[in-house]
Amino acid sequence: MAEESRRRELPGHIAAALAGAGGATDSAGQPWAGRSLSGDHAVIHNFDNDDGQPDAGYLAAVGALLDGTGSEADVVASLATARVFVPVVAQLAEEADGVDGLHADKQADMALVTLTAPDGRRAMPVFTSSAALENWHAEARPVAVYAARAALSAVSENAQLLVVDPGSAYTFVVRRPAMWALAQQRDWTPSYLDDQLESALASAASDFPAVRRLETRPGGGLASLTADGRSVSGGGPGPELQVVLFLDDGLDATAVQALVGGLNEAWAGLELFAENVDSIEVKLQRAAQEPQLRQ
Quick check: 67 pLDDT over 70? Predict the structure, then answer.
């Protein structure tokens, strides 16, 4: 067989890049003339001198959360200016026949990694250090980005959760409302601390005479665990919001079910609820002599 017939064709995008090499401009059409490639001009992006270590602000916020002096809102706020590593892996885009019937990679793309949470939701993992990512997936390539950019990528991938440092000593879950706030670079208030949200829920509940009063509290899914089993008051996947309904006496199971269903439907129509609540649990209590919500 002639040497020419054994030569493999280059993928089109590589061939095009090579064809343009040595020209007067770079791949973006910017001229090389007058450009310095030394000193500060050689910096390609914000993380050229990154040592791969965790962000100090994030470590401080997590440390405070672990010892009970901080909050998960503080942790999310620290991520607003933190660099994280997003894992990407090679994904076969096109396959060709190889020697002796074996398959050979013809073209591979780099793809973001997403996970499936226990409740079925899509999650994107990010890592505060290159070592943490390597320990989690030795073949994944770390891409350094600001956490806000990672959150935006998670939104574009239809992920509902951003999971920070999975498989490490402590994993922090950024739930959907906080993830959206990061992506939009705005402050985040947890739903269980949002007075406006509580008022909106109470206003909607005033249309249901059996509801005397309601309160919002941290939900049972707010807490998380460290790798050694310590409970942490934040960073869990949810439900993060508990709504306590104080109800009239005498309601049977059918009436209670209809009431809760009607409330869920009414709350789902509230823009504040849709944007600020990731997941919810409802607790029922007897109202005793509680005044009605509706005057």
Answer: yes
CATH level 3 topology of 56-183: Trna Endonuclease; Chain: A, domain 1 (3.40.1350)
State pTM to two decimals: 0.76
Give the separation between CA 264 and CA 108, rounded to whole angstroms.
46
Average pLDDT over residues 81-99: 71
| Contact in structure between 278 and 238 (CB atoms under 8 Å) | yes
The secondary structure element, H or E, covering residue 161 is strand 161-164
Q: Give the residue among 191, 285, 198 at the shortest CA–CA distance from 240.
A: 191
Distance CA 127, CA 143 (A): 10
Residue with the two structure tokens 């997403």: 114
Question: Exposed, middle or buried by CB within 10 Å (0-12, 13-18, 19+), for 243?
Answer: buried
Q: Where in the chain is the domain with CATH 3.30.70.1350?
A: 191-286
Best CA proximity match to 233, nearest among 244, 255, 218, 247 = 218
- DSSP string of 261-285, one letter each residue: HHHHHHHHT-HHHHHH-S-EEEEEE
Asked whether residue 74 carries a pLDDT value surpassing 90, the answer given is yes
What's the alpha-carbon Rg for the chain, to the nearest Å? 26
Say yes or no: domain 191-286 is CATH 3.40.50.10740: no
Residue range(s) occupied by CATH 3.40.1350.90 in the chain: 56-183
Burial 102-120 (b: 16+ CB within 10 A, else e): eeeeeeeeeebbbeeeeee
Q: Could you give the residue ranges of the DSSP H alpha helices within 146-250?
A: 147-156, 176-183, 195-205
Q: How many CB atoms lie within 10 A of CB 195?
A: 9
Name the average pLDDT for the chain. Answer: 83
Structure tokens given for 141: 């390539």
Does residue 87 have a cis peptide bond before it, meaning omega lies within 30 degrees of 0?
no
- List, in sequence order, every residue forming a beta bridge with 174; answer none if it has no partner: 162
pLDDT at residue 89 in the model: 83
